[in-house]
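Hi! If you just cloned this repository, the fastest way to understand the data is to look at a raw example. We've pasted two of them here, unedited. The first protein comes first, obviously.
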Amino acid sequence: MPHQDASLPHVVIIGGGFGGLFAARALRGAPVRITLIDRQNHHLFQPLLYQVATAVLSPGDIASPIRWILRGQPNVRVLLAEVTDIDPTGRTVTLEGRETLAYDQLIVAAGATHSYFGHEAWAAHAPGLKTLDDALELRRRVLLAFERAERETDPGRQRQWLTFAIVGGGPTGVELAGSLIEIARQTLRREFRMIDPESARVLLIEAGPSILASFPESLRERGRRSLRRLGVEVWERAAVTDIGDGFVQVGADPIPVETVIWAAGVAASPLGRALGVPLDRAGRVVVAPDLSIPGHPEVFVIGDLAHCPQPSGTPLPGVAQVAMQGATWTAANIRRRLAGQPTTPFRYRDLGNMATIGRASAVADLGWARFSGFPAWLAWLFIHLVWLVGFRSKVSVLLQWATSYVTFQRSVRLITGPPPAPPPLRH
């Protein structure tokens, strides 16, 4: 029965996402014992989560058990638990049930959650997309909308069920919009008798001046044209002011819509507040150049929870490549600390930005090259396959994509969960 050497320095990692997983891997072979703690037993490849929500992929294609991923790394212990508190002075973390763990070095990679900008009541009507449960619930709502429309005899109510609103025009919103319109225009053709799925409306609502704000203007325009060519209605400078049962309100105008998806904002994990250090307006921890926190050089914060300023003064974006690079840099700094050497400031290398828009269409900004259309789509496919965890996942996803491309079908169109309640009577 394997045991960790209790005499070795203890590194606790909170979170099994990109930051936590890559940090654990980067400490392979280091003279430390590691405890990785996560509320879920799986690592989730979030960039492809929208494809689970839109019935392209199965949950198992983009998620793998953390224990399986780290099975060959004997210096790592994995705990399925939730961290409820951190005591940097006493160097302990508290788990639910008041169990405590002492640490010598701590990496906090707790990630982020949805932000409704003070309108938490909207969450019930406009779910976001951060977890597998979120993706399965969105898939359920989308597919049920077409089923409800098939049963509806009132033309107005049919249109309401066949209208989908996505709030937020970043990469996630754009990818969802393109995928949803393809479900309506391609996947569900000729499958219904009382409705025409091709008549479905997909609204992409962005409060700012442009969708894909992190991309250069030339790629934003190409993305905008591609979406409109697919049939997506792109609304820019359109602030959502209310969301309720059966409507989304833009400015003063309520729009009848049954399915609203939130892709507009994120907030850092509330665990950051337990560290007792300055936070930014989004709740992210303001870190030192080496990603440690003020007054506690043994505590590092990485990924979506970290506010790490660039030379321009703006913080690094909450994307996977920032978390992965921060994780490996932090692991190297922990090795330096154990060797009695000073840590070094984090230097981020921007590898570019990509977003897929639909079938054989994407935009890519790699810094040294900017392109769109089919070449960008191929590059997007290749990069996402490379970073997927597990050989089985890569093969399965490649086969699903190939089948979907050739047949226009989506193989995971399952409505799961409890039987749907009958539609309410409207007078």
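Ok, and the second one:
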Amino acid sequence: MKRVFLIVLDSVGIGEMPDAANYKDEGSNTLKAAAKSEFFSTPNLEKLGLFHMDGLTDMANNKVVPQATYARMTEASKGKDTTIGHWEIAGIISEKPLPTFPEGFPKELLDEFCKRTGRKVICNKPYSGTEVIKDYGKEHVETGALIVYTSADSVFQIAAHESIVPIEELYRYCEIARELCQGATGVGRVIARPFEGEYPDYRRTAKRHDYSLQPPRDTMLNQLKEAGYSVLAVGKINDIFAGSGVTEMVYTKNNEEGIEETLKYQKKEFEGLCFINLVDFDMVYGHRNDVDGYAKALSYFDEQLPRFLESMQEEDILMITADHGCDPSTPSTDHSREYTPLIVYGSQIKGNCNLGTRKSFADIGATILEYFNVPSKIQGESFLADCMKK
């Protein structure tokens, strides 16, 4: 029974890409930033080969012989956001970045949005998600106007207090925004950002919900599903792909829940892919420039990793990667244009195998399809033959 568990450590980049200057991300290295914290400890990832991959060898303990295959992954797409990164992992290389709105959204779009929702909007500019509710939360509560904001990423975000806008109503507003945001305003994600509390101590709740664009063409997920395999989505994976190609899904509130739901799926009988996103690295720590928090989150994941490794079945393959960077030590609070790590582990996978620097995240999707003997129709080059034991 073949199974692949693909875990995306959201935003755990491992160093600036050659074109980082085009994105104002020179010097970014998310992993090394976290490693400077006294709370950073990842011995299990080290045993698998994390510090032996290109760009990280100065962190390696040469006495450690990696137990897994490992590589540094290059993002071939134009962009550095969650949607673009995950789509590329699944086999779509995006030639154009998704639209961003550094000056706010067009008046015509917001006028129609207000007409459809019956509510006014406030803010309409790039903003930190925690700061926007501090600065606009009181006005929202007093007037009922929706806090609409964006970031350096391709997102249309709507923040609302749960006592003013019930959560299902907020979700409906997001569906309206998703319907309106197409073409030139076709952001990668519309995001519900509910919050609670009393002024000035507002805090976001765990009921965030993402509404993504439909992928422009079939991905690895669609091909696996069409071939009769299970495609299980943990965390925001279902949202990122707008449900396309997913056979079963579970939402999670944080990394801890994501890990526990993955362990539950590991105990179930299925054949196919379990695709997991652990979002706290990015959402809770990267975007808030919390180096120690980021380090603690990585250390927690590392502590939990043996629970999964000990229960792997004979034909299971574990892949650990990321979708972009979000260096918590730089002045920016946005994503960073970085290489990402890849670790591939299993009883059939070679240990101490360095695949170097790959040309595209899409190589992951192509490799998974080959493992399931599904002829690939996606972009990317499989590395299966290079990492499987003979």
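That's it. A detail worth noticing about the second one: The chain has a mean pLDDT of 97.
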